[in-house]
Amino acid sequence: MLNIQIEKTNQPKQKPEPEELVFGAVFTDHMFVMDYEISQGWHNPKIVPYQPITLEPSAMVFHYGQEMFEGMKAYKGVDGRVLLFRPEKNIERTNKTNDRICIPQIDEDDMLQAIKALVDIDKDWIPNAGGTALYIRPFIIATDPYLGVRPSNTYKFMVIACPVGAYYKEGINPVKIWVETEYVRAVPGGVGEAKTGGNYAASIKAQMKAKERGYTQVLWLDGVERKYVEEVGTMNVFFKINGEIITPELTGSILAGVTRNSVIELLNAWGERVVERRITIDEIYEAHKAGILEEVFGTGTAAVISPVGELNYRGDMITINNNEIGALSQKIYDTITGLQTGAIKDEFGWTVEV
Amino acid sequence: MLNIQIEKTNQPKQKPEPEELVFGAVFTDHMFVMDYEISQGWHNPKIVPYQPITLEPSAMVFHYGQEMFEGMKAYKGVDGRVLLFRPEKNIERTNKTNDRICIPQIDEDDMLQAIKALVDIDKDWIPNAGGTALYIRPFIIATDPYLGVRPSNTYKFMVIACPVGAYYKEGINPVKIWVETEYVRAVPGGVGEAKTGGNYAASIKAQMKAKERGYTQVLWLDGVERKYVEEVGTMNVFFKINGEIITPELTGSILAGVTRNSVIELLNAWGERVVERRITIDEIYEAHKAGILEEVFGTGTAAVISPVGELNYRGDMITINNNEIGALSQKIYDTITGLQTGAIKDEFGWTVEV
Ligand SMILES: Cc1ncc(COP(=O)(O)O)c(C=O)c1O
Ligand SMILES: Cc1ncc(COP(=O)(O)O)c(C=O)c1O
Question: How far apart are CA B49 and CA B332, in angstroms?
Fold first, then answer.
C-alpha cells in the first residue's frame, strides 16, 4: 500500500462543457507523481495540483527517449459508479514495456492504487454523456541529468487525466486507411511491442503522408518481408473473411492491445471462430476480390471499435462492406461499451470499481 | 542572422579539475534556447544561465518521443584558437533527422551561430589538456501540451555543453564487442538513420546484456536478414581485410557518422582502398579464419577511433590484431585528433574557428 500524500488544489479549474470536449487537451485538477532512485526504489507518492514539471535540460528523457506511457479510461457507470476497464492489463503491459527499455518494474498494486486515487479525487471531471469518459495517462520518464547512453538511475512516474468526448458523434463512420509500403513501424527484436515514445515519433511521418492523401490512418506492414499486416495507427486490426475472424498474431513487433484481447475473449465467448495468425495484405485483397472480405475493424482504447471502409494499397483501392459498419463490428462495439459503463452485466470480471 | 539575447550568469560555477572530468555530467555556465511556433517559426533566441526547464506533464516529448539531438566537440587549439570540427555536417544531419520525425527545419546558419555563440561565452570551460574537449549537445524537444499522436506545433531548440576528459587516459585500449543476435536497432523504413531518442532507448537492453557478459558494446546486425553488420554501439564500424578497408554502406538503418565520413575522406586522400558495401558477420569471421582480418575499429565523436580487440558472435570469440591497436587505426586517430586541435595543418577545410 502506498502512503499517498495528498495536496488538494485550492483553485479548481472550470470544467469544459460536454459538447466542447476534445481529446487530450484539457487536464483535470490533480496529478499523481512518484519518484524512483536506486537506493529508495519507487518512493514519495503524492497527488498534487496539476502543474508543470521542472527538469534539467540534460534529463535523459530529452535525449535518449527512455520513456513509457499507458492509456486507459474511467467511465461514469449508468448507476453512478466509476468504472475502470481491465486496468490490470495496462499495468501488466507497463511492466513489459519497462522491462524492454530498462525502466525499473513498478508494483502492480501500487500502480492500481495510484490510478484509483487520482480518478477518485477528480471524479467530478468524469463526463456523464454517452460515449464520454475520463482518459487516464500513466507515464514514466528518465530524469538523470546525464549525457550518455545507459539506463537512468532516477525516474518519475506520473498519472494525468483528461475528460474526453464521444469518439463518434454522429454514429460510427468507417475510416479510410492507407497501407504504408515505404515506412516501417517495428520489427521483431525492436521495441514495437512496448508502449514507448520512440514508436510514436517514428510513426508520424507516414501518418502525415496518409493524411495528405485523404486517409485517416496508416496500416503498417511488417518490416522484414513487408507483406504481413501488423496494426492500424494506434489500433490493432481484425478481418472477417468468409465468416472467420482473423487478427495478426503477436510476433514481437505488434502492441498487445487490451481492446484486442477483449475482442478475442468476447468472440470466443460467443462461439465465433477467431484465429490469431500472420496474414498478408495480398490475402486480404484476394478475399475482397472473391467477395468474402466481410468486415475490417481497428480496436483501441480511444475508439473501442473503428470500422475500416476503404483500404488503399499501392493505389489499389477497395471498399469494405459498402463503407458501412458491419453487424459484427457493431455488436462488439455495443457490448464492450455496454460492459465499460455497466449497462451490460459484466460476466467477465473486466470492470473495476473505483 | 539571429539576434541572440544574452543574459550572463552572475554565479559562475566552479570548473572541474582536468583530471576529474567525466563525460556528460558537468555542464557549463550557460545554455542556448530558441522556441518554435507555427506562426512565428523559430524565434526568441537567447543565451541564459544554465538552468532547469519547465514543461507541462502533457508535453509531447514525454509521451511520443518527438525529439532529436546532435553531438560534436569544440577543441582548444594548440595555438589557443577554439576549433569546431565539421559543424556543418552535424547541422545537415539535424535537418535530416528533423525531416524524418516531422520537426520543422532549422536554418543552417542560425544553428551554427547558436553553437558558436554558446561556445564563445563559455570558452573558459574548454579544457586544455591533450585529448580533452568541450562536448556540445544541440537538441530539440516537442512541447505541445497535448495527448495525441501528431507532429507538435511548438518546440524548443537548445544547446548545452560539458567539458570532457581524454577518452583514452593510458593509451588506446581495444574494446571487446558483443555481436547481438536477439535485439535489433533499426531497419530500412524506420528511424535508424535519424539521431532521435527512440533509437537509443531501444538499444539499452542489448547494451546491458553485453555489459553483463563483460563486453563494452554491442555490434548490431541488420534487422531484416540478421547477418549484415551495421554499427557498434554509438559508433560506425570499419574492417581492414587483406589491405582493403570496408565499412557498411548507408542503407537507411545506419547513422551517417561525421567521423565515418572523415575517415573515408582521409583514406581516399591517402590513396587507400576504401569500400562502402554490405558485409556479413560471416565474411568477417571467414576473413579472420583466413588470417586476413587485419584491423577492426569503431568511429564516433566521443572516442574518434576505438579499436576492436575481440568479437563474440554466438559464443565464437575471435581476437583481432593480437588485441592491439592497428597501425592504420593509430594513424587515422593521430591525424583526425591532430586536425581537430590544429596540430596538423587542415588541408580539408574541416575546422571552423569560433
Ligand atoms: C500502437 C498501438 N497499437 C494498438 C493499440 C491499442 O491498444 P489498446 O487496446 O490497449 O488501447 C494502441 C493504443 O494503445 C497503440 O498505441
Ligand atoms: C548510433 C550512432 N552511430 C554512429 C555514431 C557516430 O557518429 P559521429 O561520428 O557523427 O559522432 C553515433 C554518434 O553520434 C551514433 O549515435
Answer: 38
Under 8 Å CB pairs connecting chains A and B tally to 219
Q: What percent of chain B has pLDDT over 90?
A: 93
The minimal CB distance from A149 to the residues B64, B190, B203 is found for B203
Do residue B25 and residue A200 have CB atoms under 8 angstroms apart?
no
With a cut of 90, say whether residue A55 has pLDDT above it.
yes
Contact assignment for B31 to A57 by CB distance below 8 Å? yes
ipTM given for this complex: 0.97
What are the pLDDT tens digits along chain B (354 aa)?
999 999 999 999 999 988 888 889 999 999 999 999 999 999 999 999 999 999 999 999 999 999 999 999 999 988 889 999 999 999 999 999 999 999 999 999 999 999 999 999 999 999 988 889 999 999 999 999 999 999 999 999 999 999 998 777 667 889 999 999 999 999 999 999 999 999 999 999 999 999 999 999 999 999 999 999 999 999 999 999 999 999 999 999 999 999 999 999 999 999 999 999 999 999 999 999 999 999 999 999 999 999 999 999 999 999 999 999 999 999 999 999 999 999 999 999 999 999
pLDDT 10s digits, B255-275: 999 999 999 999 999 999 999
Strand, coil or helix: what is A232?
Answer: strand
Q: Is it the case that residue A21 has pLDDT exceeding 90?
A: no
First to last CA, chain B: 16
Interatomic CA distance for residues B248 and B228, integer angstroms: 8
Residue A236 and residue A300 in contact, taking contact as beta carbons nearer than 8 Å = yes
- d(C-alpha A161, C-alpha A136), whole Å: 4
- Nearest ligand atom owner, CA of B203: 2
Same CATH fold, A175-345 and A5-165? no
B contact residues 250-289, partner A, Cβ 8 Å cutoff = none
Q: How far is Cα A340 from Cα A85, in angstroms, rounded to an integer?
A: 6
Domain ranges in chain A are 5-165, 175-345
Cβ atoms within 10 Å of B121's Cβ, excluding its own: 20
Cell of B289: 579464419
Alpha helices by DSSP H, listed for chain A, are 60-64, 87-100, 108-121, 197-212, 258-269, 281-289, 327-340
- Dihedral sign for Cα A248, A250, A255, A261, please: positive
Give the Å distance between the CA of A236 and the centre of ligand 1: 6
Torsion angle (degrees, nearest 10) of CA B52, B57, B58, B63: 80
Q: DSSP for B47-115, please give it.
A: EEES--EEE-TTBHHHHH--EEE--EEEEE-TTS-EEEESHHHHHHHHHHHHHHTTPPP--HHHHHHHH
B175-345: CATH number: 3.20.10.10
In whole angstroms, give the CA distance from residue B163 to residue B5: 24
pTM of the predicted model, to two decimals?
0.97
Question: Is B301 an 8 Å CB contact of chain A?
Answer: no
- Fold for B5-165, please state it: D-amino Acid Aminotransferase; Chain A, domain 1 (3.30.470)
Segment A254-293, tens digit of pLDDT? 999 999 999 999 999 999 999 999 999 999 999 999 999 9
Chain A CB within 8 Å of residue B49 CB: no
Closest of B139, B320, B164 to residue A60, by C-alpha: B139
Q: Nearest-CA neighbor of B190 among A201, A10, A59?
A: A201
* Contact present, B309 and B174 (Cβ < 8 Å): yes
Q: Which residue of A255, A299, A333 sits with most ligand 1 atoms within 8 Å of its CB, as the best mutation to test the pocket?
A: A255
